[in-house]
Amino acid sequence: MGEKNGLRALARACAGLGATALVGRLMPAVLGPQRDLGSEELGPYLGGGGDVRVREMSPGLTEHEGGVLEWDRAEEADRTWRWLHGQSVAIEDVFATSDDGTRLAGHVLACCPGSPRWLVFAHGYHDNWRAGLTYARRFAEAGYNLLFCDLRAHGASGGDWVGCGWLDRRDLVAWSHWVLGRAGEGARIALMGISMGAASCLMASGEQDLPSQVRACVADSGYSDFWRTAENVVSTGSLGTPPVAAHPLLDVARRRLMRAPGGYDLRAARPVEALARTRVPVLLLHGEGDRVVPVEMAHELAGTGTGHELVAFPGAGHCCAVFADPERYWDAVLGFVCRWT
What we know:
- This is CocE/NonD family hydrolase.
- This protein is an alpha/beta fold and about 350 residues long.
- The chain has two domains: about 1-30 and about 235-265, no CATH class; about 60-225 and about 270-340, Rossmann fold, CATH 3.40.50.1820.
- The protein has 13 helices and eight strands.
- Helix 5 links the parallel strand 3 (about 115-120) and strand 4.
């Protein structure tokens, strides 16, 4: 019995050593700055290659369901391109500073100068601000000026580490104050994000110093708990990586990040805790075929606190509900934000 226990201990030690070496190689690429994120004019979903992205995020669809997604994606790409090139104002590069001193980059399209409505949009992991162009036209037509953020350690924003929503929550508070500086105290702000950006918005909504002018939060494909999401992604390979045992890999990464300059605890990124205390009305959107962030997490979020709304979409994977049923999606989103802002 003792020999078996010794072998088990040795196996755990070897596994830990392997994880340490692997994390040392992978951590800068996975959680370090994400700078080279493509230059497609319409972003990762509407630009060239967007059809591949959507199908990768929606595995297991029937041929008909996949065809619907691609048709709706291509149609929105065409409409957005024509709308964007018809604008009389240019996209501005703007900057804010988070409370830890990180310089944040944003991109503004002040397409409705007479309107007090503003959308602050947060993209997902390993994307950039142009992911927000998928949603831009519809919000602009509803009277919103648009601020697309580069999340920290993404694109042109500073930061040593990807924030997983935890660090980004403070950045979105900073951006909300930036909007007030630009538009005045009468601004009416909606936060919206997808995936990690959705989690960032949910956690920002629970911050005590979030301006009262933030009146709505829309979260598409957001997770309730980053740690559990990471366990799912690593063990299933749902983002296209080979599936491997989540532990001790994640445990080693967590310890390293906590000890690194500017680091933090990955377990702190728990939007479900923020929703228990938020004053901001929240709309949750989620694809029922999401294998990156299982739809059960959306139900968990919806059941936390009071008054949160959830709309789930059959035939949609991660961040793809907007293409699976655009009419229902935008009825829900614009009905919600226009009610509160």
